Amino acid sequence: MTSQSLTKYAKLSIAAAIVTISLKLLAYFLTGSIGLLSDALESFVNLAAASFALFALKIAEKPPDEEHMYGHSKAEYFSSVFEGALIVLAAVSITYAAIERIINPQVVQQAFLGITISLIAAVVNLCVALYLLQMGKKHRSITLVADGQHLLTDVWTSVGVIVGIGLVAFTHIQLLDPVIAILVAINIIFTGFQLIKESALGFMDRAISQPEKKIIEDILNSYQSIGLQYHGLLTRQAGTRRFVSVHILVPGSWTVQKGHDMLEKIEGALREAISQLTVTTHLEPLEDPKSMEDVGIDRA
């Protein structure tokens, strides 16, 4: 699946954000709960993040050009960094509003009606979050995974707020409302920094996952039975795309055409095993000792 077809998931996230913003603002105006206000603020962040995710996916779908010969797939990392930063910003805003409410307490009105409305919004977010996480992992899109994780933190925010308002309704201890909001904000900050860390690793050309590397090695090892060897295996990932380069050693007596045909076969097997994989191979003669010198990694 291409990045272009992934944009429909970002549009789904935008629609969910609009629905939940409407529900949460209604709940806030009915109750006056700072917890519900913090919940609504995070949904505004969701909307901004989902919009940026859509923008990033549209950039990532562009084919390689003269200035970006390896494509635009790293644009997805900008989206997840942006989303992580927005999550942290939302948590700071929630904390500020909660502290202000501690200083100036306010009675929560129509608590159970607010809980009902907030619960509906949480269910909407939960369904969309789980779907985005599933599709993001399936298509290896860090943008969709980040968006799904963001919506999932919103669900936990809603749960915390619902519990807080419920406790306020039963105990009449108004302080519980802002205290719960602060606890939720701390959890949100942790999630935001995790997203930023994951994106930073992507910018640094992190190697592909070990299970995927094992698949590649198994395929390359399968050709040793016909006398081929390999070395200098390097991998990296950028958004949904994986990149692999490897040196293939064949008998020096082979013709260039025969060696080329064999490399085409190996590359095809690798691309068939792992989707959205760019493979670069280099042909070398088995008999030349210099062929066994690895390249690309300075071990000094």
TrEMBL record:
One of its GO terms (biological process) is intracellular zinc ion homeostasis. Gene3D superfamilies: Cation efflux protein transmembrane domain, Cation efflux protein, cytoplasmic domain. It comes from the Bacteria. It is found in: Membrane. Residues 212-285 form the Cation efflux protein cytoplasmic domain. SUPFAM superfamilies: Cation efflux protein cytoplasmic domain-like, Cation efflux protein transmembrane domain-like. The chain crosses the membrane at residues 12-31, 81-99, 111-133, 154-173, 179-196. One of its GO terms (cellular component) is plasma membrane. Residues 11-201 form the Cation efflux protein transmembrane domain. Its main location: membrane. It is a multi-pass membrane protein. The keyword Magnesium does not apply. Keywords: Membrane, Transmembrane, Transmembrane helix, Transport. GO terms for molecular function: cadmium ion transmembrane transporter activity; ferrous iron transmembrane transporter activity; zinc efflux antiporter activity. Belongs to the cation diffusion facilitator (CDF) transporter (TC 2.A.4) family. This is Transporter. It comes from Candidatus Roizmanbacteria bacterium RIFCSPLOWO2_01_FULL_41_22.
